[in-house]
């Protein structure tokens, strides 16, 4: 439907939703681990820091699928590939040794990604990673589907440790979350913020832990599989308020098709 065919009330509702979602993009859609625990080096090597290639500033999280492929949130990579690089900060190195870096060669966002609604907020990164030790990348973390996933999951990120101090974590942090239904998510976030049923998203909530600024694009791991990618939320660490994640299982056919073309 074209916006030119909307009634005046529908148009103002469309405008209201667009403004709300733009606010979330600027203020709350970039997420951080609040109240998380430090993760020992070498235990989650594939969880990377997506950085500004010119100054190494942390921007978002990302997850390596193979030595040549990573996934992140599409809203994290809206500029040209040369603007980004990945730092494998959880890879164990000696003191004063820079962690391995990967160059981003190509960015492939989901064709249905919408910056305004946040739907299908997923992108594949084609990488150049010069690293001999890649045995830890031999097993796949991609799920077969999203059917039947429930219970406790763990999210990982390098974002802010504390809301007030606004200091990024140099160490990978984790937080345990529980998946909730989209009905519960809508009840908590409201119909204009919660993801739509056809948006390819899921929701998860923790107890005094949450994802906020700096953790968008980072993984939500459930039973050893990458089931979610951190996308957005209303606030940070508010009891009972879930965060929104891209469902990897809902996009698995597209992901596998892109990965096959790259390889």
From TrEMBL:
Record keywords, A-Z? Digestion, Disulfide bond, Hydrolase, Protease, Serine protease, Zymogen
Q: Which reaction does it catalyse?
A: Preferential cleavage: Arg-|-Xaa, Lys-|-Xaa
GO cellular component terms given for this protein: extracellular region
State if Protease is listed as a keyword. yes
Under Gene Ontology molecular function, one entry of this record is: serine-type endopeptidase activity
Enzyme Commission number: 3.4.21.4
Q: Which Pfam families match?
A: Trypsin
Q: Which Gene3D superfamilies match?
A: Trypsin-like serine proteases
Q: Is the Hydrolase keyword given for this protein?
A: yes
Instruction: List, for all copies, the residue spans of the domain called Peptidase S1.
Output: 33-260
Q: Which domain of life is it from?
A: Eukaryota
An individual GO BP term: proteolysis
Identify its protein family: Belongs to the peptidase S1 family.
Provide the protein name: trypsin
Q: Which organism is it from?
A: Vanessa tameamea (Kamehameha butterfly)
